Amino acid sequence: MNLTLEKIQQRLMSSDDLKTPLYIADKNDFKRNITDFVAAFRKYYPNYNIGYSFKTNYCKEFINVVKEIGGYAEVVSPKEYQLARNYGFDDSRIIYNGVIPDLGNKIRCANHGGIVNVDNVGELGSLIGIYTSPLAIGVRLNFDIGNGIVSRFGIDVDSKSYQEIIELQRRGLIKVKCVHCHISYARGLSYFKKRAEMMARYAKELRANIVDISGNMFGRMDDSLKAQYGEYIPLYEEYAKTIGEVFAREFPDGEVQLVTENGTPIVSTSMSLLATIIGKKVIRGKTMLVVDCKRDDVGFVCHTKNPPCNVLSNDSDYVEHATIYGCTCIENDIIHRDYSGPTNIGDKILISNVGAYGCNVANDFITHKPKCICIDDI
């Protein structure tokens, strides 16, 4: 982010022609994040690979890096599956998850060596029904790791459906090549240790040769953002050690491939949003700023947190405890709830850590979604 800020400052000093709002992608930051992440995991368990979560950010420059390092494209819809193929991923490098019926593409992907993780036995039955040979398939499992959340995703390991999977494999109708899970609200290391242990257990039970423990990890972030979480933020190395040591113990010969699916931990810091302050007023003692983007452009991070904001100002005018609003006519179009710093109408503001679920969830409601450029093009 500091490099992005410096380059924008230099550009504004020479020419104020950056039209906002504007996403700024940093390919080098993304490459550094993903290579460090993969290296950390392979240190503890060499038979590891990463699946990049397409839904987190579709930026082509980032996806090309994933392809360069040999990672998987993790997709969850017909749209994303086609996008991965358009970007040059072979089916053998695609992980197809999700609950959307797409039998033709899922069979194609599985038949060409991809990983298709079915979410329920009804979907599995449909795939078996139109495929004549034993289908090599993945299964998404649902089990309790003690986080107090009953997820809607996957097949309950304590249910009749799970036993049906065992029976289908015994009869030679399927070959379970992968076990998968999708667990939210459990980013701590103790949860990942339990997740890894239970997934290793089910991999052995179903004789799977790939274990995809999914994601939902913390990543690198600005210190001001980190302080808002109220819990410990593990490093890449700590996640890798916690998970990798379990797999090294359970599969000492490395016969099972470990996969994680990650978007947020590697892309959050790799994109910023440049906007312009277009309004400033005080109502009953409360300072309110308005920028020319909206909350949906910033993404999920500003729903519950205050994203890092740097105002590029040459003036000494200063505000304290201001709320930064988006430019729509929606009352809760809030981007930052407690900004203190320099502020003038016309100033540029750089909103950081918006790489995860920012540009992908941006829309054309009231205003058009921002364009995107690479930092190298500034």
TrEMBL record:
Annotated ranges, domain Orn/DAP/Arg decarboxylase 2 N-terminal: 34-267
GO BP term, example: lysine biosynthetic process via diaminopimelate
Cofactor(s), names only, from the UniProt record: pyridoxal 5'-phosphate
Any one GO MF annotation of this record: diaminopimelate decarboxylase activity
EC number assigned by the record: 4.1.1.20
Top-level enzyme category: lyase
InterPro entries per record: Ala_racemase/Decarboxylase_C (IPR009006), De-COase2_N (IPR022644), PLP-binding_barrel (IPR029066)
SUPFAM superfamilies reported in the protein's UniProt record: Alanine racemase C-terminal domain-like (SSF50621), PLP-binding barrel (SSF51419)
Keywords: Lyase, Pyridoxal phosphate
Superkingdom per UniProt: Bacteria
Pfam family, one: Orn_Arg_deC_N
Protein name in UniProt: Diaminopimelate decarboxylase
Gene behind this protein: lysA_2
